[in-house]
Amino acid sequence: MKNANMQKGRGMVKWQPFASMPEQFVCIKEMIQEQTKVPRPILTQDAKERIENKLLISYLGEEEVLLTYYKNGYLYKNYITVADINPLNKTITCTDAFRNQRM
């Protein structure tokens, strides 16, 4: 039996210590994303030739290589197999580890 004079309170409320307001959470998330961005790497001619050789070896031997690429301030790594090289457009068509085709 409950006491009628006892205060009800808020009940069970999930505790949110840091970003308790949605607007605050969005702002903090954007700040963290901006802090984790890296500047675009500058490649030397030697590095470009090594990358070209690795891609050519993957294309001719159908070998999987680890590709590290820069996109929108972040470095991404992915294992790929080169399916086609188009020197006119400077693009490669590749498949990832799950055989999904990408450009």
UniProtKB/TrEMBL annotation:
Domain of life: Bacteria
Pfam family, one: YolD
PANTHER family associated with the record: IG HYPOTHETICAL 15966, YOLD-LIKE FAMILY PROTEIN
Name of the protein: YolD-like family protein
Classification of source organism: Bacteria, Bacillati, Bacillota, Bacilli, Bacillales
